[in-house]
Write a structure and sequence with these properties.
Blueprint: H1 4-15, H2 21-35, E1 53-55, E2 61-63, H3 64-68, E3 73-77, H4 84-95, H5 97-102, E4 106-111, H6 115-124, E5 130-133, H7 138-142, E6 146-148, H8 151-159, H9 164-168, E7 174-176, E8 178-183, E9 189-195, H10 204-218
Length: 219
């Protein structure tokens, strides 16, 4: 069966005009990023995730260890409100939120955006889970996800209306590649996925399968 989230990405791309030169260049950049070996540096299943405390959309601090006292936590890193693939992913995860909760889990979405932009993301996508701000990509860096956007890509982003300093509140021009982690007791990563191609994300079914395994081990 076709993965649900990937099918939605394909539908989005089919609804867009034929690839412009700029979009083709961005896909080439994704290929270059893959060749850099960035995904090899991302934290893998079996290792411990770093603890963190980040502000949510209204500025309230959210701590990973505290969240883990209630059960496994799904942590997903996304680029920002300006990224259409991120919006698809966040809405797909919202759709399975009742199942995540039923299986004893919770969900945290993290981006380098300011809290105001996180709140805008939450409202735009009708999200009912925590959306956190990782200013400066401090936590994303600990997960091995961060890269710097090269100068020529920055110019393309600005031409698309995605001037990252406006969204992130800094001039670093750094982003996380898309990464999702299911984290269990003791902060051990049970399942991890990261891809330098922004079109590729962890499927909702994979998240639920990992949480079902945890729930089954508790029974």
């Amino acid at each position: 069966m076709e993965p649900e989230l990937r099918s939605q990405v394909q539908e989005l791309e089919q609804s867009l005009p034929p690839l412009a030169l700029e979009q083709t260049l961005l896909l080439e950049r994704a290929a270059e990023l893959a060749l850099s070996g960035i995904t090899e540096r991302v934290l893998k299943a079996g290792v411990l995730a770093p603890d963190f405390t980040l502000p949510n959309a209204v500025g309230r601090p959210v701590n990973l260890d505290t969240e883990l006292t209630g059960g496994p936590v799904v942590v997903t890193f996304y680029r920002g409100i300006w990224c259409p693939y991120c919006s698809l992913q966040l809405r797909a995860y919202q759709k399975i939120l009742p199942e995540i909760i039923r299986l004893g889990g919770s969900l945290l979405a993290i981006s380098p955006q300011s809290p105001d932009q996180s709140q805008a993301t939450l409202l735009k996508n009708f999200l009912q889970y925590e959306v956190l701000s990782d200013r400066g990509n401090v936590v994303a860096r600990q997960f091995g996800l961060v890269y710097q956007v090269p100068e020529w890509v920055r110019e393309l982003y600005v031409s698309f209306g995605s001037n990252l300093p406006d969204f992130n509140g800094d001039t670093s021009w750094e982003l996380p590649i898309a990464g999702t982690f299911v984290i269990g007791g003791g902060r051990r990563i049970l399942l991890g996925y990261a891809d330098s191609d922004p079109r590729n994300r962890m499927e909702p079914a994979a998240i639920l399968e990992a949480l079902q395994a945890v729930a089954g081990n508790r029974d």
